[in-house]
């Protein structure tokens, strides 16, 4: 134990995070110990899901903050290759929930799907702690690929399903639903922030196995919370119909088989790229086929949906530099004090917690005055902010000269602009998909939104790969040059989208939108686009 007099900024941040975690766990224990069925006006099941998801996000984002460093420093991949692997991994994480959601809706029910996903995730995070000796010739690297595959498939079964269970605790007409999702989203971002700090701190300051081991312990804790809290769910998340044991076991076997497939895919990124292209074209063709069978107004709403969905890869391709190339840049070229670079990944979820309620109130305030921007205009603002974030960062790095470390202030400014951009796109996009899609295509359109988020994560890997240049090694000048280029291009695209937004808004036909039948279960449910980007629906 280091003497307190020798503690640096990183040590203090870790201790503060530990204290905050302790406070949340104490509150959780008090809620669990209460004999009343509700706490603060909400069913206890909400808080159980809050803590289960908090621990899951603690593990996922803590591991994610370390991943790029583990690839470059322990397994000795080049910078370019590492960012490509990172992008391939995160893209697969956002594709598998489509399958996991389908199996839960049709057969397993959300509770069993989350439980199975949680077991796979716990195994995956714990396998990450097996370091071996390092280097690509070490046979232990196969355990690492297995760990990633388990996390990918586990996320597929857990990710969207636990979000749906929150809504199932309430009637569709219950006025507490939006508040419930707000509370739940706080758990997501609290977990993301605390996990990034504590797992990142241990991994970079003490050892990889300690950091990944803590992520694994966090996931096990979340699994225990979920299992022990079954009774407070009051039947939420159960299977739609009795499921034969052999069919249930077959579904679990499919999940295990999917792990083997992901184990191979994550190692061969070119295959993922080709699959994304082929399946993306197929999805586009099918959506267009269904669109042209519709009447004029719903058909044009589908065109508006496709326009918005097409912007998803551009935004997330830039935003997701955070865990890849920008994480490496922060580690090597930023004046960090004594703070490990991975800890800076906590800035985004902290900003989300601070600013999401402000944005929700802002949209409401503007809406009452007829001044709220349309969904396509908000997308234009989102892209402008993410592009401006890169330009401000490059400018800040240039103010001190090439030989001097970039001031840490500009890391905070980049994350601030990217987070406010995220708040203009992520919740707005989910709301638009839910409002504009015909009922019989609602799930497909939400799946397409997640799919294009996955494409964006893969694009992020390709952009990150470019920062490695021809030999795969990142340089400060080359990275800043790429950031400057993508910043300018993105702002130019945002201007074009802003000019097109009146046309797209017209396609949306908001004045003739009719409410869906409230008897249709699940029509108001939204999945989880991204851990640090799940927001209250009012946003």
Task: Report on this structure.
This protein has 539 residues and is mainly α. It contains 16 helices and four strands. The strands form two sheets. It has a two-stranded antiparallel ribbon with strand order 1-2. A two-stranded parallel sheet has the order 3-4. Strand 1 and strand 2 form a beta hairpin. Helix 9 runs antiparallel to helix 10 and helix 12 packs across helix 14. The longest helix has 33 residues. The radius of gyration is 22 Å and the shape is globular.
Q: What structural keywords apply?
A:
single chain, 539 residues, mainly alpha, two-stranded antiparallel sheet, two-stranded parallel sheet, 16 helices, 4 strands, 73% helix, disordered C terminus
Brief write-up:
With 539 residues, the protein is mainly alpha-helical.
Map the helices and strands.
Elements: H1 9-33, E1 38-39, E2 42-43, H2 44-74, H3 79-108, H4 110-127, H5 141-168, H6 177-205, H7 208-228, H8 245-265, H9 269-291, H10 296-319, H11 325-333, E3 334-335, H12 347-368, H13 375-398, E4 406-407, H14 409-436, H15 442-466, H16 476-508
Helix pairs in contact: 1-6, 2-3, 2-5, 2-6, 2-7, 3-4, 3-5, 3-8, 3-15, 4-5, 4-7, 5-8, 6-7, 6-12, 9-10, 9-15, 10-13, 10-14, 10-15, 10-16, 12-14, 13-14, 13-16, 14-15
